[in-house]
Amino acid sequence: xxxxxxxxxxxxxxxxEDTAGTVIESLYPATGEVIARLHAATPAIVEQAVxxxxxxxxEWAALSPTARGRVLKKAAEIIRERNRELSxxxxxxxxxxxxxxxxxxxxxxxxxFEFFGGIAATALNGSHIPLGSDWAYTKRVPxxxxxGIGAWNYPQxxxxxxxAPALAAGNAMIFKPSEVTPLGALKIAEIxxxxxxxxxxxxxxxxxxxxxxxxxxxxxxxxxxxxxSVPTGRKVAAAAAGQLKHVTMELGGKSPLxxxxxxxxxxxxxxxxxxxxxxxxxVCSNGTRVFVHKAIKEQFLARAKARTEAIVIGDPxxxxxxxxxxxxxxxxxxxxxxxxxxxxxxxxxVTGGGIPNTASxxxxxxxxTIFADVTxxxxxxxxxxxxxxxxxxxxxxxxxxIARANATEFGLAGGVFTAxxxxxxxxxxxxxAGTLWINTYNLCPVxxxxxxxxxxxxxxxxxxxxxxxxxxxKTVYVGMGKCEAPY
Length: 487
Ligand code: NAD
Fold this sequence. Notes:
By secondary structure, the chain is of the alpha/beta class. It has helices at about 45-60, 65-80, 85-95, 100-105, 105-125, 155-170, 185-195, 210-215, 230-240, 265-275, 295-310, 330-345, 380, 400-405, 420-430, 465-470, and strands at about 10, 15, 25, 35-40, 130, 135-140, 145-150, 170-175, 200-205, 225, 245-250, 255-260, 290-295, 350, 370, 390-395, 410, 415, 435-440, 455, 455-460, 470-480. The strands form 6 sheets. A 7-stranded mixed sheet has the order 14-15-16-13-12-18-19, sandwiched between helices. It has a 6-stranded mixed sheet with strand order 9-8-7-10-11-21, with helices on both faces. The protein has a 3-stranded antiparallel sheet with strand order 5-6-22, with no helix packed on it. The mean pLDDT is about 95. The structure holds nicotinamide-adenine-dinucleotide. One of its GO terms (biological process) is glycine betaine biosynthetic process from choline. Keywords: Metal-binding, NAD, NADP, Oxidation, Oxidoreductase, Potassium.
């Protein structure tokens, strides 16, 4: 098999197998071919992973932050050296075109290790608090063993975005990739060992919705960071609350992208296409409700249609391919059901809406799709599709569009395209979301915090802010005189 790893799990610095676990087949989404056969973690594997992480965390936390940072920066260097090989694996794992994975996946993981490796020595300082002759100080301390649970759209990036801040702060991590894309995280675990991390500091175990709870409910796990859907988020948060564990929730969205009539039209169309078609639309922060001012709507649609129909769909391993398949058969069924619903509920199909005939019948391809005349009550305007389906809605008035943009349970992201600087800031100020873009879309460099509000989650990834979600403050009051008591 094309991408079979030596074993399913990576624990304590080595590949480990337990064939008693349920079989997980990894399929290449462009052909449906089985590329690896793995096993979900059994309770014995989970225990092994937790025990080894506990041991490693103590050793790791005792190092200076500079020494920890050095290991993380080394890992970043190795990831960059192997970008091609890791990107090829990511393409097999997800079906995303090599044209994308080579610039967006291992490299953004390397950015995370480089960034957190770089700030470890300076961003974890405590403070000194003068109290007359007494004084106090604070220390930022790690939480212990943290669990990362990933989605299937950015497997390597998620493994790094969770691992890098967790490790920088002095924690160990057990990462469970999505059962749909189990391969990339194993390579990240291997690389960390090569970079000098202690054995057990970053373990990877495989599994699905049955395995996740074994980790979340484990009494030796201090924190869970999930990237996934809102229903899964509710379950994981509820389980974690049972033991008052720390949680970060990176969940789904149905984000608004507002295009005013003074916007640079080509730039706005680029933003809308990036925010709907990149990674075959499987991006949580996508601007899937594109509100376009009535005055420019037809022009917007005509140009967006022409550019969309020129997208090169096909073999993800071909450098010229711009759009690959969806990640799985189930995901394609879901996306096609939504497009049928869009048609049935009266949205105007501008382009796409089915399966492209460029594909040989194999693989989970769909056409990039644009619907116009979408109204707020339509299912395609309310639910997260997670596929390349752009819904264009009309508006005329600024306050009306803000109210409509906010009329959703989600609050992950949003964007505005306008030439009016004042309006841009006024509008984003009123949009209820964790991450907002002005005159661009979906750029998430590691320097800026990323995360959602409302039902899209809480906690932030990336930026120095992420360290506060992987550590806690310890306060020490220092009495300099005699201790007085009233009795
Ligand atoms: P999912 O919710 O089905 O699964 C996510 C992960 O949770 C998987 O690893 C799965 O095995 C695990 N899981 C499922 N049930 C669990 C349980 N009860 N306890 C513990 N773990 C459990 O999501 P998905 O289909 O893999 O990914 C798509 C979703 O992820 C979309 O909604 C998307 O918006 C969201 N997403 C969010 C972000 C973000 O940063 N906000 C990024 C990528 C994807």
